[in-house]
TrEMBL record:
Keywords for this protein: Kinase, Membrane, Transferase, Transmembrane, Transmembrane helix
Protein name: Histidine kinase
GO molecular function terms noted in the UniProt entry: diguanylate cyclase activity; kinase activity
One annotated GO biological process: negative regulation of bacterial-type flagellum-dependent cell motility
Pfam families registered for this protein in UniProt: GGDEF
Length: 356
C-alpha cells in the first residue's frame, strides 16, 4: 500500500495547476528577465518551461494518457526540477525554496507516509545542495536546518489532518450505508451492491438473493413492546450473518421487519443458507415471547432472472408465496410455472446443487 494513490483525479488537477503556472513563471523569470546570460542556460530554461507547460496541459485535458506511476513519481520529479532550476539560476533565496512546498503538499495530500518521508528527505538534500553551493557555510547550515524543520512539520500536520479526515469520512460513509439498529447494510447500500453483483455475475458465478420477512412482527411489538421487537430484529440480523459460512455476502435491512441477503452461491446453497437462518433463529431462548418465525423467498441469477430488477421481483414473489403457504418456510423462485415449495423438495446429498 506504500504506493497507493489516494485520489487520482485530485492529483491530476494538482499537477496540472502547478505545471500550467510553473511553465510561464519559469520562462518569464528564468529566460525573459535574464536576457544576456549564457545562451545554453537560456535554452535549457526555455525548454524546461515548455515541457512543464505541456505536462500541465496533458494532466488537465487527458490525465489518462499518463501512466499510473507518473502520479506517484510526481513529487520526486518536481523536487528534482526545482533543485535543478535553483542551481542553474544560482538562487538560494528563501523565495526560491518555497517552491518545494508543492511536492511536499502533493505527497502529504495524496500519497503514503513512506513517500511523504522520502519527499522530505529529497527536499532537504536538494536545498542543502543549493545553499552550500551559493551561501557561506554558517548561513547555509542555518538555512538548511530551518527549511528541513519547516518542511517536516508541514508534512506531519498535513498528513495528520488528511488521515483524520479519512477516518471521519469512513465513519460518515458507514453511517450513510448501514442500519443503526442491526448493523446491517441499509437499502441504499443494498441497491448499489445488488446492481453491481448481478452485472458482474456470470453463468459460473451465480448470485442468490434471499428475501426475509419476520412473521407477525407487529404482534411482537404490540404484545411485548418495541424494545423486544428491536431485540428480535437484531437476533435475525445476527443469524443472517452467522449463517453465511464465510461466503461472500451482504446482509441488509430494507426497512421494518424486511431483510435481504446477497450470496455468491447457487440455488441449493442459498436454500441451505435460508434453512440455517431459520434454525438459528428458532434455537434462541432470549425473547419473552419465543423466537420469531421467518418467511423466506429465494431467487438466483441466471436461473431465475438476468437483471437486478427482475431478480428482486421474483425473490419478492417467492417470499409472498412462502407467506401464502402458511409462513415460517422457504420458497424458491422458478423461471416459469408451476411454482414449487422447496420445503417439499426431495432430500439431496450434501453439496449436491439444485441446478446443473
Amino acid at each position: 500500500m506504500a504506493h497507493r494513490l489516494r485520489d487520482e483525479h485530485g492529483a491530476a488537477r494538482a499537477v496540472a495547476y502547478l505545471m500550467l503556472a510553473a511553465g510561464p513563471y519559469n520562462f518569464a523569470t528564468g529566460v525573459l528577465m535574464r536576457i544576456g546570460d549564457p545562451l545554453p542556460q537560456l535554452i535549457a530554461l526555455g525548454v524546461t518551461s515548455v515541457a512543464l507547460f505541456a505536462v500541465g496541459l496533458v494532466s488537465l485535458r487527458r490525465p489518462a494518457a499518463l501512466p499510473g506511476v507518473f502520479w506517484r513519481l510526481a513529487p520526486f520529479v518536481t523536487a528534482a526540477v526545482i533543485t535543478g532550476l535553483n542551481v542553474a539560476t544560482e538562487d538560494a533565496s528563501m523565495g526560491a525554496q518555497l517552491f518545494y512546498l508543492w511536492p511536499l503538499l502533493y505527497a502529504a495530500s495524496f500519497l503514503h507516509r513512506l513517500i511523504i518521508a522520502l519527499t522530505v528527505l529529497q527536499i532537504s538534500a536538494g536545498h542543502a545542495l543549493t545553499a552550500f553551493l551559493f551561501l557561506d557555510a554558517v548561513a547555509a547550515l542555518h538555512d538548511w536546518i530551518a527549511i528541513t524543520v519547516a518542511m517536516t512539520m508541514t508534512a506531519l500536520v498535513v498528513a495528520g489532518l488528511r488521515e483524520r479526515n479519512d477516518k471521519l469520512l469512513a465513519v460518515l460513509n458507514s453511517q450513510a450505508t448501514s442500519d443503526a439498529l442491526t448493523g446491517a447494510a441499509n437499502r441504499r447500500a443494498f441497491d448499489a451492491e445488488l446492481a453491481r453483483s448481478v452485472t458482474a455475475a456470470g453463468t459460473d458465478d451465480p448470485v442468490a438473493l434471499v428475501m426475509i420477512d419476520v412473521d407477525h412482527f407487529k404482534t411482537i411489538n404490540d404484545t411485548w413492546g418495541h424494545a423486544v421487537g428491536d431485540q428480535a430484529l437484531r437476533l435475525v440480523a445476527d443469524a443472517l450473518r452467522d449463517a453465511t459460512e464465510g461466503r461472500e455476502h451482504m446482509v441488509a435491512r430494507l426497512g421494518g421487519d424486511e431483510f435481504a441477503v446477497l450470496l455468491r452461491s447457487g440455488p441449493y446453497a442459498a436454500f441451505r443458507f435460508a434453512e440455517t437462518c431459520r434454525a438459528l433463529v428458532s434455537a434462541t431462548t432470549d425473547l419473552p415471547g419465543g423466537p420469531p418465525r421467518l418467511s423466506i423467498g429465494i431467487a438466483v441469477t441466471p436461473d431465475h432472472a438476468a437483471t437486478p430488477e427482475d431478480l428482486q421481483r421474483v425473490a419478492d414473489a417467492a417470499l409472498y408465496q412462502a407467506k401464502e403457504a402458511g409462513r415460517g418456510r422457504s420458497m424458491m423462485a422458478h423461471a416459469g410455472p408451476p411454482h414449487q415449495n422447496v420445503d417439499r423438495l426431495p432430500s439431496r446429498p450434501a453439496g449436491h446443487p439444485l441446478h446443473t
